[in-house]
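A quick aside before the break. I want you to see a complete sequence-to-structure record at least once, exactly as it would be stored in a machine-readable document. Don't worry about memorizing anything.
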Amino acid sequence: MGNFKEDIARCEAFVFDVDGVMTDGGIIPTPDGDFIRRYNAKDGYALAYAIKIGYKVCIITGGRGRTLEHRLRMLGIERFYTDCMDKIRAMREYFAEEGIDPANAIYMGDDIPDLCLFPLVALSCAPSDASVVALKKACWVSRFPGGHGAVRELAEFILKSQGRFEEAVMKRFNTEL
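That is the input. The structure line, written in tokens, reads:
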């Protein structure tokens, strides 16, 4: 939205897609209509300690399933939109209900359905293996692919840039670095 360093300094909320961002994009359908996804535990740790020190985290995804929702709740993510076909409406609703200024938010997505959200936030981000068009439109690209540390790299980049990384680790694990 503006100056890269200023956008980072103002960040108070993270919004993520799931498939291709928090996972490698692979899904295995189960007979009961759910899906098995593989998540990166390190990404989960990063989100959990960001939440612990007060960052807001929301998921907006076309993905669905009980196991997905269970995973999000395990991480402490209270706001999520699954099976979402209108991502713009979901993001605007989330920002309004949580009182978040879009200029203080970051979004990470990996494919064409995510592009509509890129202009709505201060910093649009993508994993290294995102679609070509998402890579071209993103303001920041992780060195890691989706499901392999992209979420953690982004969270730690923001926390370190804001001087809050050590605080996050100490509160999450009651330890010092």
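Two observations worth writing down. The longest strand covers residues 56-60. The CA atoms of residues 70 and 77 lie 10 Å apart. We'll return to this after the break.
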